[in-house]
UniProtKB/TrEMBL annotation:
<dbReference type="GO" id="GO:0032259">
    <property type="term" value="P:methylation"/>
</dbReference>
<dbReference type="Pfam" id="PF13847">
    <property type="entry name" value="Methyltransf_31"/>
</dbReference>
<dbReference type="GO" id="GO:0008168">
    <property type="term" value="F:methyltransferase activity"/>
</dbReference>
<keyword id="KW-0489">Methyltransferase</keyword>
<dbReference type="InterPro" id="IPR025714">
    <property type="entry name" value="Methyltranfer_dom"/>
</dbReference>
<feature type="domain" description="Methyltransferase">
    <location>
        <begin position="84"/>
        <end position="207"/>
    </location>
</feature>
<dbReference type="InterPro" id="IPR029063">
    <property type="entry name" value="SAM-dependent_MTases_sf"/>
</dbReference>
<keyword id="KW-0732">Signal</keyword>
<protein>
    <submittedName>
        <fullName>Methyltransferase domain-containing protein</fullName>
    </submittedName>
</protein>
<feature type="signal peptide">
    <location>
        <begin position="1"/>
        <end position="22"/>
    </location>
</feature>
<keyword id="KW-0808">Transferase</keyword>
Amino acid sequence: MTKRLFHSLCLSFCVLLTFGCAGQERKTENYTFKEGSYSGTGKWYMGREIAHVMGAGGMPWLDRPERESEERVSLLLKNLDLQKTDVVADIGAGSGYHVFRMAPKVRDGKVFAVDLQVEMLEELRERKRKGNFTNVEVIQGTEESVNLPPGSVDKILMVDVYHEFSYPVEMLASMYAALKPGGKIYLIEYRKEDPKVPIKELHKMSEAQAIAEYEANGFTYETNISNLPWQHCLVFVRE
């Protein structure tokens, strides 16, 4: 056998091995790994494929001027019923679009701005400095933890980010621990039930799917404040 033929056979074997395994399903305790959509991760939780995280290149879209008219962010903040002493955490805070709108409303409380991307954290710190937001604390989270003190938070806000969590079970456990008893999560996700919402399907969630996932992890579903144009505003309580 010539050296060239040997290398060719080895390459063919590797290709067959790679593509043969690609279609196989693999399961762990919480997650399933299998072929998914083009823009998905191939990692599934409770029948839902987890989406890729939007990178720092998406910052202009997060800060787009038409966001208020499209999503009614001011109405969303009213839904939170923020009190001046509330301690709020924005998980997946991004560039801080919601963080710096909430901070003045909790002037005697605090806003934890949590993200895991270095570029987002740098932007949050710069905007905090420029605006002199003394009640904003920037926190670097991980894929599995929000890195917040136990029992420290009254309300958690997540805007169009939960569906991208690589480890939803671990993150929900971390948020449960960070909430005070009776604390609430406000889960904002684009409505999968509405085909007119102009967002990729993988970046939407149905009400039923969200409730199933949160109840499976110890939260109690309270309500869906259905007054936003494109998004669910689902409220879950830590008992």
